[in-house]
Design brief:
The complex is a heterodimer of chains A (about 260) and B (about 250). With about 260 residues, chain A is mainly α. Chain A contains twelve helices and no strands. The chains are: A mainly alpha (about 260), B alpha/beta (about 250).
């Protein structure tokens, strides 16, 4: 069916793919093995550096004694709530700003200032106002994600092809129709990419919040571990967090594939 | 003498304002359009041709003068420089855009649009997306989208400038045939003199900015037919040369 040249091309392409995957796995395995060996022969201090086997047994232990899924779920729950709220509020405000350029011009400098402020700085205030509980964590995460969402989505809105807007205007479309029929659909790619940034932003906020206040969650595991100098627990927390954040990113990517028709 | 003007423009002026200066784009422009006519407007680039069309279809306000519809209020169908099809809508939905904006979607109108698409050779593409179409086909879809709202006047804004030369000749022939078949009054702006002379019944030459009408030509050719055919006639060359001199392009 294919010419020999094409078969050769396909073969080369597949081999390259396999090779890339091989090296990816190789890196992971070497890190684990080297780390384990260095710790085992005490070339590095396993008390401080922990080791893969210790991390594994810590996780298994966590699973048996404390309810590990409870911690993971707490973090995921907080992230989803803040992510959802951040997205909705961000989209809403971006829409208002697009709708009324005057409001945008007025609050533009404030947006810039709030955006450049490291949000951790207001962490203590948030705790005083909202208490040492889940509310503070969610507000923390919300603050981090919402401003970026507003700015990215708004920019997506105003970069919509002017010709498309003019076309609708020539049909005498109302502002609402223009928004619904052109601005929103043509901004889907921007919105999705802002969601992608958002999920990691929110996670940063949640972990930060958990560092500051919580009694539960992956962030709590990490701070608690560091306070009692249990580095195994800290490392386990980080590993679990890596897996959780990667999974959430995958979910948003999946959403992207469903929402945006690739042509 | 009874005239059958459907559009009369008197002393139309348009000034653009920037914080540094004001730019007069159009000054005292007079123009009448008759029913069923194909008028081409040519002029040096940046002379305010697009501004004129934007004003006509209500995208922009004008500073002074008047636009009168002697017979009845007219609907304008605007076809832009690029095809501006929406990539996330299929061809049928793209063509229904204008009707959707006007809340005019019903079985009847959908059938009408489908018929238009079938008549003009796009039957197999009704449920395809714009990315599956060639440049010429996209332009044809854009025209059908304009025709779907059943406009009294079609405004063409350099409709072929995004196409390569070969396609351009073929598509302008194509568009001309569709417009004539649908018996639509048309105003086309272009910087391409050959395109204007081969397609139009009347060519209006505008001056440099602030633009007004410099002169106009009723295009009379003995053996006048489709644009492609007209390009080979003797008169074509004569009109071309005259208009070339009028526009007086310096490089």
């Amino acid at each position: 069916m294919y010419s020999p040249e094409h078969i050769n091309y396909l073969k080369k392409k597949r081999r390259r793919k396999i090779l890339i995957f091989f090296f990816q796995i190789l890196i992971l395995l070497s890190i684990i093995i080297v780390w384990e060996l260095l710790a085992k022969y005490e070339i590095i201090n396993p008390f401080i550096s922990s080791s893969p086997s210790r991390i594994l047994s810590t996780i298994i232990n966590l699973y048996k004694t404390h309810n590990i899924f409870n911690h993971i779920w707490t973090t995921i729950y907080e992230t989803i709530i803040s992510f959802g709220l951040g997205t909705i509020i961000g989209l809403l405000i971006a829409t208002i700003l697009w709708w009324n350029n005057f409001i945008y011009k007025v609050i533009d400098p404030y947006l810039t200032i709030i955006n450049s402020l490291p949000k951790v700085a207001i962490g203590p205030i948030i705790i005083i106002y909202f208490g040492a509980n889940i509310k503070s964590i969610i507000i923390m995460a919300l603050l981090i994600s919402v401003i970026v969402t507003i700015i990215t989505v708004y920019n997506g809105f105003i970069e919509t092809d002017h010709n498309k807007i003019n076309l609708l205007k020539s049909f005498k479309a109302t502002k609402y129709q223009i928004f619904k029929m052109v601005i929103l659909p043509s901004s889907y790619p921007t919105i999705i990419s802002s969601l992608k940034i958002n999920i990691s932003m929110t996670l940063i906020g949640v972990i930060m919040g958990e560092f500051l206040v919580s009694k539960k969650g992956i962030g709590y595991l990490i701070t608690y571990g560091s306070q009692v100098f249990n580095l195994n627990l800290v490392m386990s927390g980080i590993i679990i967090l890596m897996i959780v954040s990667y999974l959430m990113y995958l979910i948003v990517s999946l959403l992207e594939k469903i929402l945006i028709k690739k042509d | 003498m009874k005239n059958n003007n459907i559009l009369e423009i008197h002393k139309l002026s348009k000034i653009y304002h920037t914080s540094k200066s004001e730019i007069p784009a159009i000054k005292d422009l007079d123009l009448n359009i008759k029913e069923g006519e194909f008028v081409a407007i040519v002029g040096p680039s940046g002379c305010g041709k697009t501004t004129l069309l934007s004003i006509l279809c209500g995208l922009e306000d004008y500073s002074s003068g008047s636009i009168i519809f002697p017979k009845k209020e007219l609907t304008m169908g605007y076809m832009l420089q690029t095809d501006t099809l929406f990539p996330w809508l299929n061809i049928l939905d793209n063509c229904l855009l204008g009707l959707k904006v006007k809340n005019n979607i019903n079985i009847e109108s959908i059938t009408k649009v489908k018929e238009l698409l079938e008549t003009y050779g796009l039957k197999d593409f009704i449920y395809k997306y714009p990315s599956n179409l060639s440049g010429g086909m996209k332009q044809r879809v854009a025209l059908i989208r304009t025709l779907a709202i059943d406009p009294d006047i079609i405004l063409l804004d350099e409709p072929f400038s995004a196409l390569d030369y070969q396609t351009r000749l073929a598509v302008s022939d194509d568009v001309w045939k569709i417009i004539k078949k649908e018996k639509k009054t048309t105003i086309m702006i272009t910087h391409d003199i050959a395109e204007a002379v081969s397609m139009a019944d009347r060519v209006i030459v505008l001056t440099d900015r602030p633009s007004k009408v410099k002169c106009e030509y009723q295009i009379n050719m003995k053996d006048k037919s489709t644009p492609m055919h007209n390009r080979n006639l003797i008169e074509f060359k004569q009109y071309y040369d005259k208009i070339w001199k009028d526009i007086d392009i310096h490089v």
